[in-house]
Write a structure and sequence with these properties.
It contains four helices and seven strands. Helix content is 25%, strand content 28%. It has a seven-stranded mixed beta sheet. The chain starts with 6 loop residues before the first strand and ends with a helix. It has one domain: P-loop containing nucleotide triphosphate hydrolases (Rossmann fold). The longest helix has 13 residues. Helix 1 packs across helix 2. Helix 3 links the parallel strand 4 and strand 5. By secondary structure, it is of the alpha/beta class.
């Protein structure tokens, strides 16, 4: 992915991570592919929880580490939260059948995208969470129009 300049946001705690996810929600659309990278415990699922709550989901949000995918139906949007941590090689993607989930009516958010490198459709937004002292730093990058619009809206709403 050839990226535009990366946006950076300091997240001092889990609540800030949830708010960042919620701030991304209003501009997320069906057909978008969002990757979420970071070490174990960096807050990836917390960010997804905020994103889902920002989209109006009121129920629990579980990590898909063992199920590989959790799905949520929000109005007419299918939200798929993938976690490929347990994949040992990208070829497992082909056997999973997950390619059919990437449709125009689905928002796909992928944790551990490096485990399926080269298998995913084009990525709209690449998010990375990194440890920063006691908190985290969120890096956001995009080079497709939908992703760029998402980042522009995020930058204008989050200080």
């Amino acid at each position: 992915m050839t990226t535009l300049p990366v946006l950076r946001k300091s997240l001092p705690d889990a609540d800030a991570t949830m708010r960042a996810g919620a701030a991304l929600a209003p501009v997320m659309r069906g057909g978008m592919v969002v990757t979420l990278s970071g070490e174990l415990g960096a807050g990836k699922t917390t960010l997804v929880r905020g994103l889902l709550h920002g989209l109006g989901w009121a129920g629990p949000v579980k990590s898909p580490t063992y199920t590989l995918v959790e799905h949520y139906l929000i109005s007419s949007l299918y939200f798929y939260h993938f976690d490929f941590y347990r994949f040992d090689e990208p070829a497992e993607w082909e056997d999973s059948g997950f390619a059919e989930y990437f449709r125009s009516d689905a928002l796909c958010v992928i944790e551990w995208p490096e485990r399926v490198r080269g298998m995913l459709p084009p990525i709209d937004v690449a998010l990375t969470l990194r440890y920063q002292g006691d908190g985290r730093e969120l890096l956001l990058a995009a080079d497709r129009p939908a992703g760029s619009a998402c980042l522009a809206a995020f930058a204008s709403t989050v200080r």
